[in-house]
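Support reply, case 0932

Customer input (verbatim):
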Amino acid sequence: MSLYQRLQEGTETGPVDNARNNALGELRHRVHGSLIEELGPVLYDKRLTEDELRKKVHDALQAALAQERTPLSAADRTQLIQDVSDDILGYGPIDKLLRDEDVSEIMCNGPDQIFAERSGKLVLEDVNFADDLHLRRIIDKIVAQVGRRIDESSPLCDARLLDGSRVNAVVAPLAVGGPFLTIRKFAADPLRIDDLIRFGTLSVHAARFLQACIVGKLNVLVSGGTGTGKTTTLNVLSSFIPDGERIVTVEDAKELQLNQEHVLSLETRPPNIEGKGEITIRDLVKNSLRMRPDRIVVGECRSGEALDMLQAMNTGHDGSLTTLHANNPRDSISRLETLVLMAGYDLPVRAIREQIASAVDCIVQLQRLRDGSRRITHISEVAGMEGDIITLQDVFLFDFGAGVDDQGRFMGQLKPTGIRPKFAEKLADNGIKLGPEMFAPHAIGEQQQSRRKR
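Our regenerated output:
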């Protein structure tokens, strides 16, 4: 049990233990303060390597403890050193969760309730912050590292850790019950298409089809709910872009990890303390058009930038990609219409729909199923317009009819519907030819059965 937890539970362990835990708490705060005062600018000296900085902190911590008269057992001393080191060099009690490869997301609902997502399931973790101020101090440290701020006048903040993990923080007066911190971890080794196939997110044929769509310069929209894996899928799809092309990425907080040689990453900027200087996604999308991009990749469309994205797709920037929140392909079209209207222009609905039908070629829909897995459930073509309605046709669909196994996991996979998309002709013009076997569901089923027999 960590020192933080003992401090939280001190009131239930009797007056002697309570007094001891209070003394440990005071000692921890005192040592922490003395180290900050002594080391000061050394903590932010970029000339020091991580090992050198850790050694300086450890030596200073040992010296500070040597001057203290509070009696400590060997276990308490070791835990105290670890806790203070994590506070100064890392992110306090959540440091071990950030290092845990099985954890994909961390949610702090106040100082004493921390959840982690493991294999798609939320688990209450056995770690705690000492109090609200402790959690708030860690939040301030995180946002300051990327040049952002959070206070009563600006109580919401989107930021990222130094490794790229996405961070959202909410503090008083908006956060009732303590500061809230949510961290979506950034994979040190980004997932590739083979990983998604192994996880069952999509099938081999669907992967080949999507690769053809990206190389063939189709405009692709990745749609799904929160936590369904949109950004991961966007990153994998972006990896198919050929090396010789100039790519401009636009994000709120940089998450995409592209390995191509010619990538320019743009990131938004919040307003300063005077409420000025804000740079939005829309500003960056507009500016990206002046940077001679071959491809524009927008992390997420959530407002009027959808109009600028459609304009880019319709004016020679084929092969652009973006994501948005929606429950299914049809809803993603409706939501895209709504986002375009948020640009502030009084455009007729039919004109917006014509823009969408002309710009977007393919919609990739993701869903997090009840077994915790993230699956691509639809790959749909935007086929055009019939009257005032945008028509969609599904090229691949997830087979929910396959049922679940004994552990409750879905056994289905993404299968072709048998429909050959109209944009196959556009792909052929770009040198990408899709054979009929790509869209034949029965032929694929027979191949899978023959492989199982072998």
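We compared this against your earlier run and they match. Two observations from our side: The CA atoms of residues 111 and 129 lie 5 Å apart. The chain has three domains: 1-89, 93-187, 193-453. Please reopen the case if you see a mismatch on your end.
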